[in-house]
Every structure is written in structure tokens, then in C-alpha cells.
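User: My instructor asked us to take a sequence, write out its structure as C-alpha cells, and then describe one feature of it. I'm not sure where to start. Here is the sequence I was given:
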Amino acid sequence: MAFKEVILVDELDNEIGVMEKQEAHLSPNLHRAFSIFIFNSKGEMLLQQRADEKYHSSGLWTNTCCSHPAPGEDIVESAKKRLNEEMGFTTNISEVFSFIYQAGLDNGLTEYEYDHVFIGEYDSVVNPDAAEVKAYSYKSLDEIEQEITQKPDLYTEWFKIAFPKLREIINR
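Assistant: Let's start with the prediction itself. The C-alpha cells for your sequence are:
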């Protein structure tokens, strides 16, 4: 596995250094991340099920795409690039909010992220990378909320934190 660096930030999202991604998740150190939520024209959210080979949260359902911008990389361009790499399409996205969260994961890892949340709309072909994505599905927000309540173990920790925040903003 190639080493990838993440951008360490303070609680105001000011860059304070870089660290190898795995090390940042073991320490944990606050670092910059992004989460993308794509909707179709019916208002359904595109979810992905993480591939079984992922180093954490494998096989769990989550938002359309998420990752970390590389040092020196524009976060919007990084997010668009990663969306295409993981899900096989591009679309316009816009940032709707950001927040800090910390959540324990499997394999002794912890997410401690300053997460920039983007939304977009897409109604065409989805062609996910099988090394990243096991399956995908469009679901209504009500259906997702019900599943998170009834079967929380099916979803990633960060999704269970971000989804209600996003839903609150969408419902305003």
C-alpha cells in the first residue's frame, strides 16, 4: 500500500503540518477530509457499500464518496477527482458545511477529521471502482434515517454523524 499524506489542521482548519494517513488515524491527529453526498433528481441519496478489502469500515454503507485532499491540493478539485476515481462519474459539487468529529473505527483506528461536506446532483451512469466499492444504491432520506435507527451497524461511523447534520440543513 502506497503511503499517502494527510493535511493536519487546527480547529479552525488552518494547516499545521502533514502526516502519513495511517499514522494520523492511529494517533489520532486532526486532519482535513471531505465527504460527498450525491442526490438524483428525485431527491434520493447515492450510497456506496465499501469494498470488503478496505482497511477499515469494510462492507459498511456510507455516503457517495469521502477521502482526504493531498498536501497542496485544492479541496474541491480533490473531491471531484476522488468522486470520479471511486464512483466513475463527475458532477458539480458545492460545499454546504464543515464540522469536526472524532469516531473510533475497527483495526484500532480513529477518525479525527475536519470534514468539508459537499453535495451534488447526478442522474446518469454510475461505474464504481470494484476495489473501493462493493455495491451502490439510491435511497430516500427517510429510508436511510429508518435504517440507521434500526440497523446502525450497517453504516460507517462518520456517516451516522454527518447524515443528521446534512438532513437538518436540507430541511431548512
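For the description part of your assignment, you could build on this observation: Residues 5-170 form a domain with the Nucleoside Triphosphate Pyrophosphohydrolase fold (CATH 3.90.79.10). Try explaining in your own words what that tells you about the chain.
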